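User: Can you help me understand a structure? I only have the sequence.
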Amino acid sequence: MRGLCVFHHLPWLNAVMSLRPRGRRALVPGRHRRRTATVATVAALAVPATPALATVADARATGAATSAASDAVVDTGSLDAITSIIHARESWAAGYTGKGVDVAVIDTGVAPVQGLASGNVINGPDLSFNSVHPDVRYKDAYGHGTHMASIIAGRDQAGSPSSYLDRTHFTGVAPDARIVSLKVGSADGSADVSQVIAAIGWVTEHAHSNGLNIRVLNLSYGTPAGQDYSADPLAYAIETAWRKGIVVVVSGGNDGTSLQSLANPAQDPPVIAVGAEDPVGTEQSLDDTVPAFSDRGTPLRHVDVVAPGMHVLGLRVRNGYVDQAFPSAQAGRFFRGSGTSQAAAVASGAAALLLQRNPALTPDRSRCCSLRAPPPSRWAR
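Assistant: Let's start by predicting it. Here is the structure, written out as tokens:
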């Protein structure tokens, strides 16, 4: 029926969410006046970098980066190199692989491709525009969520901690962490901030329900920094999760300009705001640089940590939206992507390793560990 609206109460935000035809979706604020802000479309925070698109982030595009020919002697976009750079492999050798820690990934869903089909991915609700279509419900037809999940907890097969040191297999940062996938992005990547807020609310309410142990929330979606976080309903939802003991890891943003800014909700002080860094072909950090697309922040609020986010080889959704849009980024069953999305996924995996080792850590203590660690993101140890 044309114009039909279905309303869901969002108790964590004191608001309701209206489900309307595409292009007419809005958050209807409740009595909490501090968060009555305009609801924007959110964008996945990764950078297209094909020759035709340069290196500046498009607000709607994700995932593509240059081909393997541009890589240096060490392929520092591979998870093999990245897990060495952030010292995750040392954690595995010590027995810490993220086991027992659930990571909520609010994104475009997760496809059951090789590397994400060994039993450590479960589905939360599908809140996307596609949820009314059974053939694509829960499935990632875009490619961004699968890419993020593979970086966080991908593995070709489950094994002992020492088995993940075998470099012949694909292994993400925290291979024994469990991904809880909440789909908000549709087949073309589109999502509304109200869907993201609803997903955060579900995570907050169900973090420890029915055997779940959601300790980390990865959000590689964000909105432009057009308003202060104190008036942003997305930031309010994030703060609610933080108060419930969930470590919230978010992308800093890919503004790609000289403006000093951070995307929302990265502006919010309780979150771990992640920027991208470029290892420039080596596994030592002294020569690392911050790519031009990565938001640095403002004098009052900068990113908390940087992590590898250039030419990252994550798992590919064959014939997905991004896969078809950027064929030059394909590399077998992998796909190269650059952005603070990828950097946030690396940091989320590191947080899972940290929380397995120190399960009593609060979100604030986890954030302190990230701030004390030398770059890039070496708090996985």
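Now, to help you interpret it: Residues 340-357 form the longest helix (18 residues). The chain has one domain: 40-372. Let me know which part you'd like to focus on.
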